[in-house]
Amino acid sequence: MTHIDRRGFLRAAAIGMVAGGPLAALSARTADASTMVKRAFSPDYGPLSPVKDQTTGLELLKLPKGFEYLTHGWTGDLMSDGRPTPPMHDGMAAFQPSGKLKSQVKGSGKGHWTALVRNHEVGAYSGAFVEPAYNPTAGGGTTTLVFDTRRGEFVHSYASLSGTIRNCAGGPTPWGTWLSCEETTEINGSVRHGYVFEVPHDGISDARPYKEMGRFSHEAVAVDPATGYVYETEDATPSGLYRFRPTVRGDLAQGGVLEMMKIGGGAYTTYADGTGTVYPEIDWVVIDNPDPGPGEPGVVRQGIAKGGASFRRLEGAWYHEGKIYIVSTSGGPTGQGQVFEYDLAAGTMRVLFASPNASVLNNPDNICVSPRGGIVLCEDGSGVEYLHGLTTDGEIFPFAENAVVIPAGGVPGKSVAPGNYTGSEWCGSTFDSKDGGWLFANIQTPGITFAITGPWENGSL
């Protein structure tokens, strides 16, 4: 089972932490969203300043004092299998490596290894980079990395899924696999795209599309470990919140039933709902044709026709203690984002938080948690991009600033083009599966994976 991953499984509260962690504190503020404050810097970690990359010597990030990082898997870098690293790094999750994976990698420190499965949101039909491939002409997929948390170095990497396109996000499963999601409904010749693919953290995917999980513009998933149900988000407007009930728990390849959330009497629109809005009447409608072809009604239109609820750009999803947290990137009264909380046992949902303005939170995308209960938000707005932290008091602060500028002469040994990449989005944030001492995250362009460590115990992350 994944010990700590991109969608997170909160562990016991740290000393002095508010019960329930940052989301509980955030919930306590729902009576008045205007009380939410975005601090200029962390009240615990302090302000940001330039820090040199231990790999290249360039100042690629701004971090609080005491934090350091190294980079790996730049676009074009050769992996352990001899293949060049694909571009457009995106969603990612961390796993405790299996014995199978450990046996494939030479070297010591196997007890301190973390496996990372990383998406590549390549939209070009530039050709598959590993077999078996779903579509031999499609250039997206996933790669797998192994990191030694004790020595602080990457020790292995290889291609693990190919022949797909626009692999944006996804999510880990309790049984140790990564669900990689295509954010598209394109058709390339006779090949349909827009599916979910399962990737073992310790091997290569069979590139089989799970068609019964739906063909739509997928974003993220979160799995309820009690039932094995998979909750799926859709990055579109209108978008639906979906639930896939597998025929066999833990074996998605056996198929199942796809459903879309219904709120109240039906055809409800959540776009403008503010902090504290409660939806006590939740139901689910069956999607009759989860794999629509050309000329057939899309999944979201099928759901709306049956009374399904409409959302605006659903992206991040995260399971924690019987609840699913879902991020709407551009929902809410100001269009700056919402965070929904769905209570699995009660069958109720509410708007946990809607950003009052861009200065508090500007279009949140994906989320993850640390074993200390802190939350990391990947902001996908405008201007310079940040990883934001959420304190146990519910206060938002910038933790890491994208300062990636590649000089005119380039970087020795790297094939990335010179330029200013500070506006490129953060994605794939996840803490290591061992003890949470390392935070991994990607800058999508030019395509870099960061491993960040430091005095986490000084604050809520």
Automatic annotation (TrEMBL):
SUPFAM superfamilies, per database record: DPP6 N-terminal domain-like (SSF82171)
Transmembrane regions listed in the UniProt entry: none
PANTHER family the UniProt entry points to: MEMBRANE PROTEIN, SLR8030 PROTEIN
Protein name per its UniProtKB record: Secreted PhoX family phosphatase
Domain of life: Bacteria
Organism: Nonomuraea africana
PROSITE patterns linked: TAT (PS51318)
